[in-house]
UniProtKB/TrEMBL annotation:
<comment type="similarity">
    <text>Belongs to the insect chemoreceptor superfamily. Heteromeric odorant receptor channel (TC 1.A.69) family.</text>
</comment>
<keyword id="KW-0716">Sensory transduction</keyword>
<dbReference type="GO" id="GO:0004984">
    <property type="term" value="F:olfactory receptor activity"/>
</dbReference>
<keyword id="KW-1003">Cell membrane</keyword>
<dbReference type="Pfam" id="PF02949">
    <property type="entry name" value="7tm_6"/>
</dbReference>
<feature type="transmembrane region" description="Helical">
    <location>
        <begin position="266"/>
        <end position="289"/>
    </location>
</feature>
<dbReference type="GO" id="GO:0005886">
    <property type="term" value="C:plasma membrane"/>
</dbReference>
<dbReference type="GO" id="GO:0005549">
    <property type="term" value="F:odorant binding"/>
</dbReference>
<keyword id="KW-1133">Transmembrane helix</keyword>
<keyword id="KW-0812">Transmembrane</keyword>
<dbReference type="GO" id="GO:0007165">
    <property type="term" value="P:signal transduction"/>
</dbReference>
<keyword id="KW-0552">Olfaction</keyword>
<protein>
    <recommendedName>
        <fullName>Odorant receptor</fullName>
    </recommendedName>
</protein>
<keyword id="KW-0472">Membrane</keyword>
<dbReference type="InterPro" id="IPR004117">
    <property type="entry name" value="7tm6_olfct_rcpt"/>
</dbReference>
<keyword id="KW-0807">Transducer</keyword>
<keyword id="KW-0675">Receptor</keyword>
Amino acid sequence: MSEFSNFEPMFQETYKFILDRIKSNQIYIMDEGSWRGRLCWIKLAVNILAAISHTAGVFERIGQGADLVQLSTDLSAALILWQACLLYIQFCLNRKLLKNFIVHMGSNWRIDDQLRPDMVAVKHEYVTTFLRWISVFYKAVNTYLFLYLMPRLAYTAVKHFILKDSVAFVTPFYVKMPFKFDDNFLLYSLVYLADSKILQDVGYLVTFDLLFMNAALHHLRLMFVMLQDDLKHVQEESVEQAENTLRKIIPLHQDLLKLMFELSNAFGAIFIIHLAFFSATMCFFGFAARIHCSPESIKNLLAANIILVCIYTCCYYGQNLTDASVDISQAAYESQWHLKSQEYKKCILIIMLRSQKTQYIKSTSFTDVSLETFTKILNVTWSFLSLITEVYEA
C-alpha cells in the first residue's frame, strides 16, 4: 500500500482497517500485484462452486418434499452465496476505479495545518468516531459468525466422541456434494470447516464492502463541511486574501463534485447488487421467523438485520453527503459577498451556481443512495413478505 504513504495517518487508518478485512477474500485493491490479482479469480471460482453446491442442496430438499418454511434458511444461504459471486466480479473488475477513488480523495484530504482549530477538532471527532464504530461492528460480526457456524460442529463432536450417542452429521446449511460425507466424521469435519470458512469470508465481504462505501461517503461529506467552514470565514480576511482563498476554493469544490461522480462509478453496481438481493433474503428469513419462530430462524433474521443496518447507514451518509454539497451554496451566500469586490462576487457566483444543483450518489441511473431509496426498499420488502405469507397460509 505504498500509495497510502503520502496520506495523513488518520485518513490511512480507516481504509487500511476496511481493506484488510476485504483481503480475507483475496481482493487486493491497493496492492495490484499480478499473482494477487489471480487469487481473486480463484476465490471467485471456489465461491461459485459453493453456490452451486448449496443451490443443488435446495433442489434436493425440494425433491424430498420440504416446504417453504423448511427451505427458507438454505434458500437464503444460496442467494447470499450468489450475491457474493456477483460482488466478487464487481470488485475484480472495479479494483482500479476503487483504487483511483481512494488516491484521488487522499490527495484532496485536508491536513490539520490547512484548517482552523475548531474545524480540526470536528475533523478528528468525525474520523475517530467512525473508526471506533466500524471496529466495534467488526468484533460484533466476527463473534456472530463464530457463534453461528462453530457450535454445531462442537456439539456433534461431543455427542459422537464423548457421549457415544448417535448424531446426524449436518452442516450449517444443507449442501450437496459429489461424494458422501455424513458417515465419516473426519470427512464431515473437513467439509464443515471448508463450508464455514467460505461462509465466513462471504459474511465479511457483504458487510465490509458496504462499510467501505460508508467510509467514502462519510469522509467526502466531511470534506464538504470543511469547505463550508472556509467559505463562512473567508469574510474575515482582507479583500486580496479573500479573493486568493476563493480562487483556491473553486478548483477544490470542483474536485469534490468530481469525487462524488467517481464514488458513484466505483460503488454504484455494488450497492444495487445489495438492494436486489436484500429484499429476497430478508423476506425468506422474515417469513421463517414469522411462521415458525425457532431459535434458528431468529438467528438468521439477525443476520439479515446486520445487512439492513449497513444499507441504512449507506443511505443515511449518502443523504448527508447530498445535503452537505447543497449547503455549500448557502455558506457562499452568507459570506457577505455584497460588501466585497467585483472579482470576489464572480468567484462566489461560480461556487453558488455549481452547488445549487442537487447532486446524488447514483447506484444506477434511476436509483439514488438516499433515505428515500431506503424507504422504498423497505416498502418492497414488506410487500413481498406479506405476499409470501398470504400465499403460504392460503
